[in-house]
Design goal:
The protein is α+β, with helices and mostly antiparallel strands. It has a four-stranded mixed beta sheet with strand order 1-4-5-8. It has a four-stranded antiparallel beta sheet with strand order 2-3-7-6, with no helix packed on it. Strands 9-10 form a two-stranded antiparallel ribbon. The longest helix has 30 residues, at about 235-265. α5 (about 85-100) runs antiparallel to α6 and α5 runs antiparallel to α8. About 50% of the residues are buried. It has helices at about 10-25, 30-35, 40-50, 65-80, 85-100, 105-115, 230-235, 235-265, 280-305, 310-335, 350-355, 365-375, 380, 390; strands at about 120-125, 140-145, 145-155, 165-170, 180-185, 195, 210-220, 225, 270, 270-275. The chain has three domains: about 10-120, Butyryl-Coa Dehydrogenase, subunit A, domain 1, CATH 1.10.540; about 125-230, Butyryl-CoA Dehydrogenase, subunit A, domain 2; about 235-390, Up-down Bundle (Butyryl-CoA Dehydrogenase, subunit A, domain 3), CATH 1.20.140.10. It binds flavin-adenine dinucleotide. Flavin-adenine dinucleotide binds near residues 358, 361, 362, 364 and 394.
């Protein structure tokens, strides 16, 4: 049987979120960019409607939703406020990591605050000298009795200056390469944790920046998963975030196309609505269809994940092409709306800046193509790689 339909419950959820996104989030989307401020009250609002706890078990305050439903949330919130889609994606990724790999004690301590949207969590892998080659990180976690002592700098971290806690990757045995990396849950209130924000082109409200760990003493029970095995264990989560990122971007792009269709139906040139010209309607059709194809690849990937089947190739494809097709569509919409869309009075210029970031974050086009090549070509491709590089390709 082949069934492409959402359930009745998912359709209701989609309608509710579309309304919330376009009526509550969209009107203030550009405000947070101008004020360079993360609207924590709206993050919490998403918590109140269950968006921040979708991949958290019910006993810890979540709704234990499936991945397809989580994708619907990413897409619909993307219509209203692209930056608030981080509340879907980061929370699904980190919620899953904690629920799957952390001790019961840590789940009880952290998951309810994550699921309710009261606290914000970030994930810290990238470093100034290790981006795509994520296993090249240098942050160290040294065993010192009851604690691990963390030292190092993480860069490009979303919610760097806002997060209450981070999932941090550090080397616990540098001699083991990517097998010597472990994951820790680190409260940003611990002594020695500091952060600073960047002047990014987009995602301004997300306060991306660096997080510094200076002799941070992390209790041993804050290790997530097995010692030295954090990298491999936790990397599986990135197949989820990649699919969600694709849908976040598609949501922002489809909203832009919907707005543009309204515009070209009413705006006149040479005595006729713009929509009557093929030079205007064909680009709209092209982008709409590209996004439609991408969207179904994303939902298929999420469905495969829900079935416990392999979806790494699908996730990498969606992560590579989702932000790319979306920024191309938004760019076209901006042009079709004329000069007014080039001003900060309309959301299009901000959407373009915001979406471009995810052509880099969570793995560049090349990083994802490496993942796909590894899946499609296998050993012959791998033999061209330096040492074990493809194992290290960043999520
Ligand atoms: C919007 C955004 C959100 C982010 N959020 C987070 C976060 O929350 N947590 C976190 O840890 N990090 C985050 N990052 C960091 C992000 O994951 C890295 O920037 C990304 O992995 C790329 O690393 P880099 O910037 O060091 O680029 P590099 O790795 O230096 O790459 C530079 C260029 O070289 C290319 N390249 C590298 N190696 C190869 C190769 N072998 N073959 C071909 N091309 C190659 C890359 O594709 C890229 O085009 C975020 C970044 C952005 C922009």
């Amino acid at each position: 049987m082949l069934d492409f339909s959402f359930t009745e419950e998912q359709e209701d959820f989609k309608r509710t979120l579309k309304k919330l996104a376009t009526e509550e989030l969209l009107p203030s989307y550009t405000k947070w960019d101008k004020e360079k401020k993360l609207p924590r009250h709206l993050w919490k609002r998403l918590g109140d409607v269950g968006i921040t706890g979708l991949r958290v078990p019910e006993q810890f305050g979540g709704s234990a939703a499936d991945c397809v439903t989580t994708g619907i949330a990413a897409e619909e919130i993307g219509r209203g406020d692209f930056n608030l889609t981080y509340a879907v994606m980061l929370n699904a990724l980190i919620g899953e990591i904690i629920a799957t790999h952390a001790s019961e004690e840590l789940k009880e301590e952290f998951l309810p605050a994550l699921a309710s949207g009261e606290q914000i969590f970030g994930i810290a892998i990238t470093e100034p000298d290790a981006g795509t080659d994520a296993a090249g990180i240098k942050t160290s976690a040294v065993d010192d009795g009851d604690v691990y002592v963390l030292n190092g700098e993480k860069s490009g971290i979303s919610v760097a200056t806002e997060a209450d806690a981070f999932v941090v990757f550090a080397k616990t045995d540098p001699s083991l390469g990517n097998r010597g990396i472990s994951a820790f849950l680190v409260s940003s209130r611990l002594d020695g944790v500091e952060s600073s924000s960047y002047d990014d082109m987009g995602n301004v409200a997300i306060s991306r920046g660096s997080v510094y760990f200076n002799d941070v003493r992390v209790p041993k029970n804050y290790l997530i998963g097995e010692l030295h095995a954090g990298f491999k264990q936790v990397m599986n989560g990135f197949d989820l975030s990649r699919l969600l990122i694709g849908l976040q971007c598609v949501g922002a792009a489809v909203q832009s196309l919907d707005e543009t269709i309204q515009h070209v139906k009413t705006r006149q040139s040479f005595g006729q609505p713009l929509a009557t010209y093929q030079g205007v309607s064909f680009p709209i059709v092209t982008h709409y269809q590209q996004l439609e194809m991408l969207k179904w690849q994303a939902y298929r990937g999420l469905w495969l994940r829900d079935q416990g089947r392999s979806h790494t190739k699908e996730a990498a494809t969606v992560k590579w092409l989702g932000p790319k097709y979306s920024q191309e569509a938004i760019h076209e919409c901006l042009l079709l709306n004329g000069h007014y869309a080039y001003t900060k009075e309309m959301p299009l210029e901000q959407r373009l800046r915001d979406v471009i970031g995810l052509e880099i974050g969570d793995g560049t086009a090349q990083a994802n193509q490496m993942v796909i090549a590894k899946q499609l070509i296998g050993k012959a491709y791998r033999s061209y790689q330096h040492s074990n590089q493809t194992e290290q390709v960043k999520g």
